[in-house]
Each structure stands twice: as C-alpha cells, then as structure tokens.
Amino acid sequence: MSHAFRELLKKVGSGPHTSENLTRPEAAEALRAMLLQEAKPAQIGAFLIAHRIKRPTGEELAGMLDTYEALGPKLLPLSRRYHTAILGSPYDGRSRTAPISPLTALILACCEVPVILHGGERMPTKYGVPLLEVWQGLGVEWGDLSLAQVQQVLEATGVGFVYLPQHFPVAHAFVEYRDQIGKRPPIATMELMWCPYAGDKHLFAGYVHPPTENMFKTCLELRGMEQFTTVKGLEGSCDLSRDRTAIIGCYVPEIQDFERILLHPRDYELAGADVPFHSTPELIDQMRAVLQAEAGELLKSAIWNGGFYLWRSQVCPDLESGLAHAERLIVSGQVRDKLVQLATQVESQRLNYSAHP
C-alpha cells in the first residue's frame, strides 16, 4: 500500500507546474491509507504539506468525506419535525472570541430541532478551547459516553456530541501529524462539512477565507447535500459576529447556487463587540449568566445566533420572529432547563455504564 500511496503523493507533490489534482476516488483512497496507517509516516507528512501547498479542490474534499463516511461513526436517524442541524466548528478550537454554539444548540433543542456537534480535545495548530471543554464546564461530560449512549441522549434531549477520541479513534490518532507538521492540513476544511448522522440534516459550515465557501459548494453538490448553509463566522466557526455584517450562503438546489444574504446586526439593535475569550472559567460564568437572562454582551450574541438558527431551521418564518423567540426561550428559563435536562441525561448514561460496564 505504501507504494500505491507514493503514486498519489507524486500527483499532489510535484510542484506548481506539474502537480495534479486527485480524482474523488483517489482522494478517498489517500485519506483511507493515511487514517489506517497503511501509508508510511514520512509519506503522510509529505502528503499533508504538499496538499496544503497545492490547495484542495472540492472534488478532493468530497472523496475525503466519502472515507470519513465509510470509516467513521454515524448517529441513527430521528423522527422529528425538523431536520437535524449539524454545526461544524474548527477542531482546533477558539482562542480570541467566546464560542456560542453550545448556547445555540440548547436554543434549537428547545424547539425540537435536534443538534449534533463534533470535535476532540485541544488540538493543533491553534490549541484553542474545544467545545468538549465548554460542555464540561456547563456540567455535561460527553467524553465517557459510547456512541449508543450519545444516541440515547440525542433522542431524549435533542442534543448530541460525537467525540473523536471515543467514537472515531483512527481520526483522533491522526492529530499527532497536525502537531508535527505545524500547519492546519486540508482535512481540517473537510471536517467542517462532516455529518456523522444518517438521517435528514441541515449542515451549517463556518469559514474564514472566501475560497473555502466555493470548495464547500463543489464538494457538497457532488455528495448530493441539499440542505446546507455557509457562515463567514467567528474564527471559522458557524457563530455569527455582532461586530460586522454576517455573510451567509443559503444553498438553493433548484439553481444549484447560493442565495447570498447579508445581515447587519445594527438593523436589529444587536450590534456590538464580540465577546473576547480569556479563559474557560470566565466563559462558563458568562454562559451561566446568559442562562439566567442577565444582561450582557454574550446574551445579545446568544439571541443573535439563536434567532438566526431558528429562522434557518424553519422554526420561525423570518429573522425578526426568530430573534424574539430566542429571547423568550432564554428569559423564560427554557434554555436553562434544557441544559439541566441534558446534564441529567448524560450523567445517567455515565452512571449506567459504571454500573454495567
């Protein structure tokens, strides 16, 4: 296999004039060989750097997603009124701005929109705060649960989290290479589009650089994804900023293109500075203040994001009603109660495992 992989490496690593893009099957095979360690370590490192320099194509990312779908875990379909929302966030976390997606997930779950997030531990190259650590601070310990237990929590509460070290160990073992090469490899872009769910879904994928959105579009079209929204979000996440105009791409299958939406927070009296991230304990205190409906910048960010996602998930007919509904859910204590329910369900699963390992 290392000899076969060398041929794929030669295609992407031959320099700016003679390198070639991989076909979708070739990209799928390349990632499979790397994940299963059939390629040699030197080959893996060389491929990741060469592929980063060449830049991935949407077709290559589609092939890599094919491999993730073949080797990775999948939560089973739910019978719900709304499609399950998949919130894609960079695996190397956040270091400058407070993450909002856990609050967004709780808001959506209050309205029967199931939400699945995924990620791992602190990860190169940023080593920012991962979502798992945020959930832990809120009293939700996902790390010990089997995939079957996550499925039960998802069915009971509407929130699920796929944790790489526990549920996709071959992908987690690949993290070491990210540290060794010191650069974010193209598979980090692919992970933003991964949907570890077998049912109907609506993918929300964040990005920083505009060319990434075009790669999303090509990749997801090739894979037949019809429900997806792109967000030029905070640090590449799908969290909307309140400090600038939100650039949203809503894919329209009929025209096979994006409907571009520009949202100005000032038009909804929600403009302001994005909340900086200083430490996890401070972030958790800020989130708990939001759950108590205490006035503050993070509360406004939660309403801005919650309202947007309620609208895009078809719970509310427009953004204005989405914002109003998100605020009601927080002020009434329903979002706080959803967190209590979630923490209770997760702890129950952990205790069941301890009693019957």
Brief summary:
49% of the residues lie in helices and 11% in strands. It has 16 helices and seven strands.
Question: Could you characterize the architecture of this molecule?
Answer:
Keywords: Amino-acid biosynthesis, Aromatic amino acid biosynthesis, Glycosyltransferase, Transferase. Residues 6-67 form the Glycosyl transferase family 3 N-terminal domain. By secondary structure, this protein is α/β, with parallel strands linked by helices. It has two domains: 2-55, no CATH class; 84-336, 3-Layer(aba) Sandwich (Pyrimidine Nucleoside Phosphorylase, Chain A, domain 2), CATH 3.40.1030.10. It contains 16 helices and seven strands. It has helices spanning 2-12, 24-35, 41-54, 58-71, 101-110, 131-137, 147-157, 164-167, 169-173, 175-181, 187-191, 210-222, 280-291, 297-312, 319-331, 334-355, and strands spanning 84-88, 115-119, 159-163, 201-206, 228-231, 246-252, 257-263. It has a seven-stranded mixed sheet with strand order 3-2-1-4-5-6-7, with helices on both faces. Strand 6 and strand 7 form a beta hairpin. Helix 1 packs across helix 2, helix 4 crosses helix 12 and helix 5 packs across helix 14. The longest helix has 22 residues, at 334-355. The radius of gyration is 20 Å and the shape is globular. The two termini are 38 Å apart.
Features:
alpha/beta; 357 residues; Anthranilate phosphoribosyltransferase family protein; 16 helices; aromatic amino acid biosynthesis; amino-acid biosynthesis; 7-stranded mixed beta sheet; transferase; Pyrimidine Nucleoside Phosphorylase, Chain A, domain 2; globular
